[in-house]
Amino acid sequence: MTNRQVLVLALLLTSGVMAQAVFSRVAQADRPATVPRFEPAPCPTIQDVEWLAHATCGYLVVPEDRRRRNGRTIKLMVAKYSAPSSEKRPDPILYLEGGPGDIAPLEIDQIIKANFIRDRDIWVVSQRGTWSSQPALICAASNDFARELVGLRFYSEATKRAHVAATEACRRELTATGANLGAYNSTQSVADLVDLRKVLGIKEWNVYGNSFGTYTAQTLMRDHPEGIRSVVIDSVLPTSYSIPVNWWNARYAFKNIFAACASQPACNTAHPHLEQTFTGMVNKLEARPLTPTISDPNTRKNITVMIDGGALVDWLRNQTYGIPTLQAAPDTITGLAAGRRDSIEAIAKDRAGRAPPYHPGVPALGDGLAFGTTCREDDLGTPQELAAAGREAFPDYPVSITREGVGGWAYVQEDCRDVLKLPRAPKSMHESVASNIPTLLVSGTFDTLTSLAGARAAAARLSRATIISVPGVGHTVSPWSPCAQKIVVSFYAAPEKAPDTSCISRLKPASFILKGSSANELYH
Q1: Which residue, 97, 172, 265, 388, is most buried by CB atoms nearer than 10 A?
Q2: Helix (H, G, I), strand (E, B) or coil at 295
Q3: Strand order through the sheet with 73-81
Q4: Helices 323-337 and 341-353 meet at what angle, rounded to 10?
């Protein structure tokens, strides 16, 4: 997961000084050599992430590998954002980020800005190996290749060779740090979370997982159910999923987006037969790519971008992260087919904007956790299964596209089987989690990365599960949907009861933007 963008509240317990004192007492209660332990520290500074200035932070010190006694330790950055309500509840919320390997402080930024959870403290943990934790297992080679890919065919033998070479270079980078890559996985990550709860003396908390964080939440429910009062998982990745299924997730959302345009008279008039137009452009550009030169949104320098069929499919998948980009997608597709310069530039700038030049110290994906988790735990499928899923989901797309993993999953089989070669997790990790913990599962109908089918699969053995499907919203639903926010708040207030989901039936997707018009309200 997580080429993509990333993410509730204000105030501290009574004051910033009091909150810091609480952290200090926790740290002083341990001898310096005790592991796990909590060490208070200043919060990191991230551009445009204002909530950290009002948070209290520190590091959770844990063993890198719990199977090795007296081995080296690592540090996980932890931030606490205190509830603004004067009627604060004692059970806080633990936020689990996506990815795997995404940047937790960035990911939760949208949720905090939405400001809908007001009566509980929120704990944000940068999981092991991710940016702002120590070590931060970030590869220059992987980031440099993501930048290079902007000017390459999305799928080709040359691109595959360059991709695998970057993964090999990444493995060397990570190995040179001395990190034990086999210890960066979901099993160790959820054990870190248990350590955090115990070290801080939190009797009970609520879990909020987003995207891959939903997988982590389910793993926590299975391996360490103690201390969990309730769980909300938004944009659900079931533990039973396989990488070939990503093609069907894309199919589910593409169909819903095209159908929603067809159901709106203005959109249907402006963009008739939108699905056929998009499919036609996927085939046309795969045969004859466009190579516009644009001003790079990151550097303001000129850059040439390759837009072929695979890149176009990946572009539409990436519009799922926000309502405004989804609203504009039909007009951009029609404009591309008509050869409009503004549409071509919009797609090119989107691609370049998602792959900024890499500099050490700049927030980036935690490659160590990403590879460690994916290669150990994901059901990779076989090349034949991957190609069959792509062909069946999109029979009218060129085989050069559908025989590989969709979008960011391209060449993951080569990464894991040929380069990383990490030991596989027990097969039990692929089974649906059985639990009686109250769980709310949230899905968006325009989500190209996860789907309602995935939420249903995750809920199969959850005896106290409620599923909501929010129309017209893509990946990460709650920050964009006031209705979903209302349901989440009511669920946390009384998880033993069925939440009131009646607002869902009154929703419909926002109007798509027509050329020359401005963004509409989220719902009408």
Answers
A1: 97
A2: strand
A3: 37-41, 56-63, 73-81, 122-125, 93-96, 205-210, 228-234, 439-444, 465-470
A4: 130
Give me 290's structure tokens. Answer: 């466009």
Residues in Cβ contact with 453 at an 8 Å cutoff, skipping those fewer than 6 apart: 248, 249, 252
Q: Which amino acid is at 134?
A: Q
Cα–Cα distance between 521 and 512 in angstroms, integer?
10
Residue 57 dihedral angles phi and psi, to the nearest 5°:
-130, 170
Number of continuous H segments (helices) and E segments (strands) in the chain? 19, 11
The answer to whether 433 and 218 have CB atoms below 8 angstroms apart is: yes
Q: What is the DSSP letter of 462?
A: B
Strands 93-96 and 122-125, bridge-based pairing: parallel
Q: Are 294 and 306 in contact (CB under 8 A)?
A: no
Q: Which residues contact 184 (CB under 8 A, 6 or more apart)?
A: 128, 129, 137, 368, 369, 371, 372, 373
- The sign one gets for the Cα dihedral 494, 124, 128, 371 is positive
Amino acid at 56: T
Asked if residue 498 lies in contact with residue 466, where contact means CB atoms within 8 angstroms, the answer is: yes
Task: Answer yes or no: are the C-beta atoms of 349 and 307 closer than 8 Å.
Answer: no
| Euclidean distance between CA atoms 256 and 102, whole angstroms | 27
Whether the CA torsion 353, 356, 362, 364 is positive or negative: it is: positive
Q: Which two tokens stand for residue 515?
A: 């050329």
C-alpha to C-alpha distance for 51 and 131, rounded to whole angstroms: 17
Q: DSSP for 363-424, please give it.
A: ----HHHHHHHHHHHSB---HHHHHHHHHHH-TTS-HHHHTS-SGGGTTHHHIIIIII-PPP
Instruction: Take residue 295 and report the two structure tokens written for it.
Output: 């001003």
Grouped pLDDT means (10 residues each) for the chain, 524 residues: 35 34 41 82 90 95 90 96 90 96 92 92 96 95 97 98 98 95 96 97 97 98 98 97 96 98 97 97 98 96 98 97 95 97 97 93 92 96 96 98 96 96 94 97 97 97 98 96 97 95 94 64 30
Kind and range of the H or E run holding 243: none
CA distance 424 to 421: 9
Cα separation, 397 vs 125, whole angstroms: 40
Q: Of 96, 82, 92, nearest to 125 (Cα)?
A: 96
Q: Over the Cα atoms of the chain, what is R_g? A: 22
